[in-house]
Amino acid sequence: MMMRAPGFWFNPPSAPGWRARALAPLGALYARATARRLRAKTPFDPGIPVICVGNLNAGGTGKTPTVIALIQRLTEGGHRPHVLSRGYGGSLTGPVEVNPARHRAADVGDEPLLLAAFAPTWVAKDRVQGAQAAVVAGASVLILDDGFQDPSVKKTRSLIVVDAARGFGNGLCLPAGPLREPVATGLERADLVLSLGPPDSQRDFLRTWGERLTVTHLAGDLAPLETGMDWAGLNTFAFAGIGHPEKFFATLRALGANLIRAEALSDHQPLSDALMKRLEADAQAAGGQLVTTEKDAVRLSDDFRAKVLTLPVRLAVEDWGVIDGLLPAPL
């Protein structure tokens, strides 16, 4: 566990460029709008613990592997965790329990479809209705996937996940920077900052942000899941439509794979048959095996799932006791 890292000197984030400075007034308006939204409602209390996994940055930071880890810890403690998501990219408004045998990513979103393999997962645009449905279905604890800036459901604990390499960017809110709300404001409601990345990125993160971390800080990373697959020397044609595809490509290289091509798609990009046929043809021409992430794989059609290898990752942290201390006691 690390608290504010007293051994590190404080290095403020790099000065915003001219574009960020020009957009800073809009960023301030965005921050005020978020603050007003957070004050606008009295949160609904579902009567069970609610663990929120969120972020201050827009875009991917590693929330989904963190949710999977919480599911596993809670299940081992005898709990019946359910996950609640808004189902980004899905057409269903809910509340509906995700059924991987019946639903597709176009219905419920890719993240809920992946999480449903680990615990009952609900998609609901109205989080209050989703929480109520989970309680009726027997949840003993609710994991809120994202929703840190949504005040509708009362949170018992809130974890902020951040990419250690990027930190909180230039410290400004959208569109001047990457943030949904100012760092200091967000940390007032948080219980833990979980930064994900290798040791050098963790050191840089603490040098830049350590003095501003007013809550417990825990370092972690996303480690490849041991599946028995030997990646060393394998000619791979990798594609990924996640927040930061380059992290996936770097993981493949670290495993010894020969990365013939790395195709970065937009986050949550639909994997249409036309796109996949093009990627398949390119991979065959290059002599490479198609490889993607676990979250991308759930967006594949049945025809392509057997043709594409998946590299799953899981959360690894310095001290699981820090996370366990935030969770409800084992039953």
For the biggest β-sheet, the strand order reads: 3-4-2-5-1-6-7-8-13
Span between termini: 25 Å
Low-confidence stretches: 1-10
Order of helices and strands: HEHEEHHEHEEHEHEEHEHEHHEEH
- Percent strand equals 15-25%
Helix content: 25-40%
User: What structural class do the secondary elements suggest?
Assistant: alpha/beta
By DSSP (H or I, 4+ residues per run), the number of helices equals: 12
* Mean pLDDT reading: 92
Provide an overview of this structure:
33% of the residues lie in helices and 20% in strands. The chain is α/β, with parallel strands linked by helices. The chain folds into 2 domains: 156 residues, no CATH class; 77 residues. It has a 9-stranded mixed sheet, with helices on both faces. Strands 10-9-11-12 form a 4-stranded parallel sheet, sandwiched between helices. The N terminus is likely disordered.
List the keywords.
13 strands; 331 residues; four-stranded parallel β-sheet
Topology:
Layout lengths: L17 H22 L10 E5 L8 H14 L4 E5 L10 E2 L7 H4 L1 H6 L5 E3 L3 H10 L4 E5 L11 E7 L19 H5 L4 E5 L2 H11 L6 E9 L10 E6 L4 H10 L3 E7 L8 H14 L2 E5 H4 L4 H4 L3 E3 L1 E5 L2 H5 L7
Parallel strand pairs: 1-5, 1-6, 2-4, 2-5, 6-7, 7-8, 9-10, 9-11, 11-12
Antiparallel strand pairs: 3-4, 8-13
What's this entry about, in short?
The chain has twelve helices and 13 strands. By secondary structure, it is of the alpha/beta class. It folds into two domains: 18-80 and 140-223 and 316-324, no CATH class; 235-311.
